[in-house]
Amino acid sequence: ADEVVADATNTGCLCNCSYRWSGSDCSVCGSEYTASPPGECNECAIGYVNVASTRLPTCTACTIATHCSGNTNSVTGAGGLATRCECDCSNKWSSSDCSFCATGYD
Fold first, then answer.
1. What is the pTM of this model?
2. Who's near 48: CB < 8 A, 6+ residues apart?
């Protein structure tokens, strides 16, 4: 916690949690993040990708519509500090985001 103060009734404590941590005792790392290494909450969880270009990541869920142009069978996120979702393009779609029709197809 960045700061611990007495609650309004002086019968307990309130924590002002550090970056990405939450919960009454600051022990919960948000679902889009992973506590790896232990004690840190600064990498994206599996299924998420880092969309920030800063030292600390901003993680967002990988989705077919957002990251694969809607032209995919499935999408995964490697987690960690990965900056690109992995798209499994359907039919004859190609490119990293499945936005191009393969040569010879319209």
1. 0.72
2. 32, 33, 59, 60, 61, 62, 77, 79
